[in-house]
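Two quick folds needed for the group meeting slides. Do the first one here.
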Amino acid sequence: MDFDHITRPLTYDEAKAEAERIIARAYSSETPGVRHIPTSFRDDTPLPAYGDTPPVHQDDKRIVPAWAAGIAVASIGVGAGITGIGVGAWLVLQGLASVTLYGVLMVTLPLAGFAMVATAIGGAVNKARNAVTNNVYESPVIQNTQINNTSNQRGMFSRTRNDIR
């Protein structure tokens, strides 16, 4: 195959002759009314195992907005957190599914013991804080009791107010 016309530019005379040839062929009466133009091309030539040209570094020039990166990081964090919560719930439910009476007693026994000790300590502290006081009054005691009673009844609602002093 001759690829000479691809590798070098055409001279002015060659370009003019090629353009005239293309125009004459396009407007000749021999061409059918509908031009058939290929819409795809497949190169079936086998690829070489290795080539002469080394690979070229292609810089990554994608630009990600800061808000998009933040949402991505947040979604990863939320997903990891939800996964942890789901695993914890699964473990708790697995444990609850295999509950026996002895297991419940073994779990609650230390809690009941702790509650009993806390109650005993609280009772001892309360008794220690209560001081014994003897109030002796040596003067006469006068008791005045005055009762004011006010009642208002109107329709189906009524109000009674008692002031005791």
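Then this one, please, same format:
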Amino acid sequence: MAAFGYRLFGFQVYRGNKRTPVNLKDCNGEPFKEIAERLLKALSVGTAVGDPSEQGQAAIEESGNIGQPALRVQEVRVVDNTIRATAWAGRFGSHEKAIGDDAESDSDIKDKAASNLYRLVFAFPDDGDTGVLAVETIGRSCPVGPLTGWMRRKSREESTSGDIEGVWWRISVHPLADEDRLAEMIREGQAQKLVLVKHSVTAGRTRDIKDVEITASLAVGGRMDRTVEVVQTWYRRNRQDDGAGEPVSAAQGVRQLAAIVGPQVAGMDLDDGWVEIEDPDGQVKRVKPNQMAEVFTYRLSEHEPAVTPKFYAAARRTALALQPAAKVAIDWPTS
């Protein structure tokens, strides 16, 4: 069974495609909390299918729903300076049949999206441009991308619903993490090795297989400090819209890790690589430029989700501990 937990994200809001975040208390004369509540409720009317981009929606028109992600929000409510909701998220065609305790109760679900229910909390500052979003995880799944993408699309649709096109709002999220804590986790020995991989195509060209795997200890030479520097660079540059430069690609990350190991490896045609790190819960995770959020997944329970008060209290406690380093000031309600 999958473990249940949560991830925390800082979020900022931009007017259209502009690159300067707006103050969350005044988005063109309206608090973003009210806008977010309206957008979430708009996502509860029906099921949002596929990627919200124009290309994604065109693909559905051409090929149908099978294989496409699905999202539906429900139970939206405002509590003080937070919005709390639940969202069903899954994928069409991911399962053929739901079987019961006897054959007569089976249901064919090939044309439906087998979904799980995720809880989420938006927390807003009294003043400022950065809020916090807590989203439940089930195993490695977390619907933050579809959620914020569809909120953006709904905002654009709302802006064009009248005779005159109005403003629309774009939500940008980044993992809420303490950069110093990330470095500390590596130096304390929670990260012990680098793994570099080269894949090859099978003789029949039917699939990729792992051809070469190189494991390198961080205890050799200055690898530990250099790894800390590289991972911190990934974290800083992959925060969207922060002005620190273009995000680091997966291919660039592999080259950076190979250079840490040495010239005998740097010249190889490697296509994957990561820092292997064990979090305080004992969970081994792979740290890559495009896989930073998973480092800060906080586990809550096994086999079944924790009750909602426990979920909220844990997310609140973790957020309050991380907010000072992230320069975020939010006074979360106690319950």
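Slide caption for protein two: The first strand starts at residue 3 and ends at 15.
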